């Protein structure tokens, strides 16, 4: 899939609003961003102590104009030829995505890279956990590169390996005397938006990874093998999926890290079917039922589609919910001019509005607060990593430790087998 062509003549939604803490300046100089997640939807989230730091770019990239960076990126890509494949996530900024060989969600992109056997270098214009997944699935002789090491994910950071292990140990102790009916007491499931360490954790403990498109199939797989599911890090995807499967809310307790039994009592956890981790996506948490009500009042025959990382009340109020790929296909498949209100990251919404001008497509959130860390990938960083490759140097390589590779790949392969 090649990157689409974007028109500069279409009026775009702005990234700022009166009184908003979001700003269009987010796209300008991410090297000036303070430590942590920086401005955008995740600015209120607490970054972990080991949050990755990106080295300062050489001055030539800091001072280069947009036109100069464009010329340098294109020249470096042409020089590298088939040795490099460049991946751009749906949520990535346009001025980076326009160079991508493939555009898609995190798992689509990791798989797309595998179709380029000749590529020595996989440059992933997304965030850290995506690059880790690509490294797990790619060959040992291929190098995965993240242009800016500070492009993390606050949701993924909400479930760290020590906290999940502590949760697991407490659950194993609680369930140790349960009658053995041939099924495990609990099956761990991690969302794709998690570290390689957690993918390895579920792999070695009989669990698997899920995406927003196959979460129902994954939960069905887990319930065939266990009496309960521990679902992390996104509580909303877990709750929305389990609720749609008929599991009552009272059987979905929330596990809060660093509290005894996650802030629950033993009876609640014994009766649980899905134990939800206290994590969320700061972009999708911003969508509300009031936004949907306002959109319906202003537009007739409105079709509201939201991502399942949105809160349950928002998913219930929408006409449809689905993954980024679902949203893309729903709009692409609409045969009559339609007004769409979309609840997902603004870059994807803007791009869909440009690609399908026969429809009216807008974002539900009037403030339009973008993903803080996805914006860390700036053309300056992309030019730098590509020109370093031309010079024979690999910078910002993402390497999952060998101790985690096998178990993480097992979890991903189980996910691949769990097709909707």
Automatic annotation (TrEMBL):
The protein's required cofactor(s) are namely: [4Fe-4S] cluster
Cofactor note as given: Binds 1 [4Fe-4S] cluster per subunit.
- Catalyses which reaction? iminosuccinate + dihydroxyacetone phosphate = quinolinate + phosphate + 2 H2O + H(+)
Record pathway: Cofactor biosynthesis; NAD(+) biosynthesis; quinolinate from iminoaspartate: step 1/1
Cellular localization per UniProt: Cytoplasm
Q: Does the keyword Cytoplasm apply?
A: yes
Q: What class of enzyme is it?
A: transferase
Where does this protein have compositionally biased stretches of type Polar residues? 19-32
UniProt keyword RNA-binding present: no
Matching Gene3D superfamilies = NadA-like
- Which one Pfam family would you cite for this protein? NadA
Quick one: a GO cellular component term?
cytosol
What GO biological process terms are annotated to this protein in UniProt?
Answer: 'de novo' NAD+ biosynthetic process from L-aspartate
Gene Ontology MF term list: 4 iron, 4 sulfur cluster binding; metal ion binding; quinolinate synthetase A activity
Alphabetically sorted, this entry's keywords are:
4Fe-4S, Cytoplasm, Iron, Iron-sulfur, Metal-binding, Pyridine nucleotide biosynthesis, Transferase
- Residues at which [4Fe-4S] cluster binds: 153, 281, 371
**Protein EC:** 2.5.1.72
Give the residues the record marks as binding iminosuccinate: 89, 106, 191-193, 212, 307-309, 324
The family annotation for this protein states:
Belongs to the quinolinate synthase family. Type 3 subfamily.
Protein name according to UniProt: Quinolinate synthase
**Provenance organism:** Glutamicibacter creatinolyticus
Q: What is the lineage of its organism?
A: Bacteria, Bacillati, Actinomycetota, Actinomycetes, Micrococcales
Q: Which gene encodes it?
A: nadA
């Amino acid at each position: 899939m090649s990157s689409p062509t974007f028109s500069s003549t279409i009026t775009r939604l702005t990234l700022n609003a009166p009184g908003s803490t979001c700003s269009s300046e987010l796209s300008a100089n991410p090297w000036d961003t303070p430590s942590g997640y920086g401005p955008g939807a995740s600015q209120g989230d607490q970054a972990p102590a080991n949050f990755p730091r990106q080295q300062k770019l050489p001055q030539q990239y800091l001072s280069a104009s947009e036109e100069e960076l464009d010329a340098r990126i294109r020249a470096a890509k042409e020089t590298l030829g088939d040795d490099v494949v460049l991946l751009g996530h749906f949520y990535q900024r346009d001025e980076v995505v326009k160079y991508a060989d493939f555009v898609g969600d995190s798992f689509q992109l990791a798989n797309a890279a595998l179709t380029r056997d000749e590529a020595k270098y996989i440059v992933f214009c997304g965030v850290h956990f995506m690059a880790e997944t690509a490294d797990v699935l790619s060959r040992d002789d291929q190098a995965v590169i993240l242009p800016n090491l500070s492009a993390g994910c606050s949701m993924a950071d909400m479930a760290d390996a020590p906290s999940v292990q502590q949760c697991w140990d407490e659950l194993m102790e609680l369930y140790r005397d349960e009658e053995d009916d041939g099924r495990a007491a609990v099956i761990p499931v991690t969302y794709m938006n998690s570290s390689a360490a957690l993918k390895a954790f579920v792999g070695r403990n009989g669990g698997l990874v899920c995406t927003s498109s196959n979460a129902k199939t994954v939960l069905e797989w887990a319930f065939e093998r266990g009496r309960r599911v521990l679902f992390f890090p996104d509580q909303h995807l877990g709750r929305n999926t389990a609720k749609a499967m008929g599991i009552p809310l009272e059987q979905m307790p929330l596990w809060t890290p660093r509290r005894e039994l996650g802030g629950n009592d033993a009876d609640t956890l014994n009766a649980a079917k899905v134990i939800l981790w206290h994590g969320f996506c700061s972009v999708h948490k911003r969508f509300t039922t009031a936004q949907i009500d306002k959109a319906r009042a202003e537009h007739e025959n409105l079709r509201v589609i939201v991502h399942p990382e949105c809160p349950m009340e928002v998913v219930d109020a929408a006409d449809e919910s689905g993954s980024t790929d679902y949203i893309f296909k729903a709009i692409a498949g609409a045969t009559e001019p339609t007004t769409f209100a979309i609840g997902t990251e603004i870059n994807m919404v803007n791009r869909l509005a440009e690609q399908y001008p026969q429809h009216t497509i807008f974002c539900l959130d009037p403030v339009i607060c973008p993903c803080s860390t996805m914006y860390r990938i700036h053309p300056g960083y992309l030019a730098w990593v590509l020109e370093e490759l031309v010079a024979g140097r690999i910078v910002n390589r993402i390497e999952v430790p060998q101790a985690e590779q096998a178990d993480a790949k097992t979890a991903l392969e189980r996910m691949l087998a769990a097709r909707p």
